Amino acid sequence: MKRNISPVYYGDYLQLDKILSAQSLQSTRYGEPAHDEMLFVIVHQVYELWFKQVLHELNSVIDAFAQDSIPDQALISVVHRLNRIIQIQQLMNDQISVMETMTPQQFLAFRDYLVPASGFQSIQFKRLEISLGLKREFRIDFDKQSFYSRLKDADRELLEGLEAKPSLFDLVDEWLARMPLLKFNDFDFWKYYQQATDTMLSDDRQTIVTNTTLSDTEREQELRDWQSTRDNFDALFMQENYNKLREQGKFRLSHKAMLAALFIKQYSEEPIFNLPFQVITALTEIDEKLTIWRYRHAMMVQRMLGTKIGTGGSSGHHYLKKTTESNRIFLDFFNMATFLLPKSMLPPLPDAISRYLGFYLSQGKS
Ligand code: HEM
Ligand SMILES: N[C@@H](CC(=O)c1ccccc1NC=O)C(=O)O
């Protein structure tokens, strides 16, 4: 690495003149400055800086998955960057409590000056959602319209351009579906898996039927839930059924990707599956942390505004709470746990396959 020729000065390097003179308060334009508006502005600016860093990491991960093939070295750096995103998300979730040191009344001192701005117009947040894989058709109605009506033309065009590109979800789906692990000459893994899961489900049904503490209505409900789990299992082994449920929105991953992810989760301790397993785990964590952020933000809004409508025109708390469930992206990675078997019930892999999966570099002591 080359050494710098001219000396660097801390404040110049970080362009603090720009950052530290960028807190102009709306309240000063209309009267006495509201003391707490400074906190409100700075907290938002800090969020936007972290969004920038998260997008920087996320875009490099998207680039890696967009390549024709992804070598293990690239996956190592993908996992590293995804884990960095997770740590930043933790910070962003914790930061809600700093905002919550402002009381509702302190907020009301300057809230009216903010209309009609709101977090809806955070382009970086929307970029984050879209790049991860939130499709417009999944958004709730109010939010679908906000795309058209509440943004400046240039911002709207930028987001629409991004919606037309493959998201991280799309690329991960393709990557999983391409995995060559599912065909092993004469060993039909899924047939064995189906038998094992049949046993597990029959045991579950028996438990419901013989549970004397359940009322008739409770038992009927549990049996209905059991049947729905049974249907999901059947779909797993029959592509046509799977695709039907997928059209109804029960699954989002493609059938092939779902099977690959399940295989990876079941055999996560096999060395060649471990990195893909870490990718799946990190994406699950990112979805969970984003959902927690949405929930904490919605709670903060309830605390600040009760049931008042938002400055952006939504119903406020009610709208935000709904998005915590409807805007999930990697939900399949959570629900997949339904299909997991305990290690003791797993089909033993034939010798040739385990040898293929293992790293036979270590020879053991002789
Ligand atoms: C006093 C604190 C806050 C209140 C009362 C509040 C309130 C709201 C409300 C009511 C909405 C719905 C849009 C509307 O109709 O106005 C909203 C959306 C949003 N807010 Fe906040 N907010 C607060 C702080 C923050 C902070 C610190 C951030 C961090 C960047 C943020 C980011 C967002 C984002 C990204 C949305 C859009 C969410 C979506 O469309 O799913 N908000 N906020
Ligand atoms: N939507 C909020 C106002 C608000 O929080 C806000 C306003 C301008 C810029 C960012 C905001 N933060 C998040 O929505 C409200 O209805 O009070």
Automatic annotation (TrEMBL):
**Cofactor: binding comment:** Binds 1 heme group per subunit.
Keyword entries, A-Z: Dioxygenase, Heme, Iron, Metal-binding, Oxidoreductase, Tryptophan catabolism
**Residues given in the record as substrate binding sites:** 40-44, 111, 311
A Pfam cross-reference name: Trp_dioxygenase
Annotated SUPFAM superfamilies: Indolic compounds 2,3-dioxygenase-like (SSF140959)
- Binding positions (heme): 297
User: Pathway, per Swiss-Prot/TrEMBL?
Assistant: Amino-acid degradation; L-tryptophan degradation via kynurenine pathway; L-kynurenine from L-tryptophan: step 1/2
Known catalytic reactions: L-tryptophan + O2 = N-formyl-L-kynurenine
Q: Which cofactor does it need?
A: heme
What EC number(s) does its UniProt record assign? 1.13.11.11
**Any idea which GO molecular function terms this record carries?**
heme binding; L-tryptophan 2,3-dioxygenase activity; metal ion binding
For the biological process aspect of GO, one term held by this record is: L-tryptophan catabolic process to acetyl-CoA
| UniProt-listed InterPro entries | Trp/Indoleamine_2_3_dOase-like (IPR037217), Trp_2_3_dOase (IPR004981)
Summarize the protein's role: Heme-dependent dioxygenase that catalyzes the oxidative cleavage of the L-tryptophan (L-Trp) pyrrole ring and converts L-tryptophan to N-formyl-L-kynurenine. Catalyzes the oxidative cleavage of the indole moiety.
The protein's matches in PANTHER family, at most eight in alphabetical order, are given as: TRYPTOPHAN 2,3-DIOXYGENASE
Question: How does the record describe its quaternary structure?
Answer: Homotetramer.
* Family to which this protein belongs: Belongs to the tryptophan 2,3-dioxygenase family.
| The protein's name | Tryptophan 2,3-dioxygenase
Q: Which organism is it from?
A: Alteromonas aestuariivivens
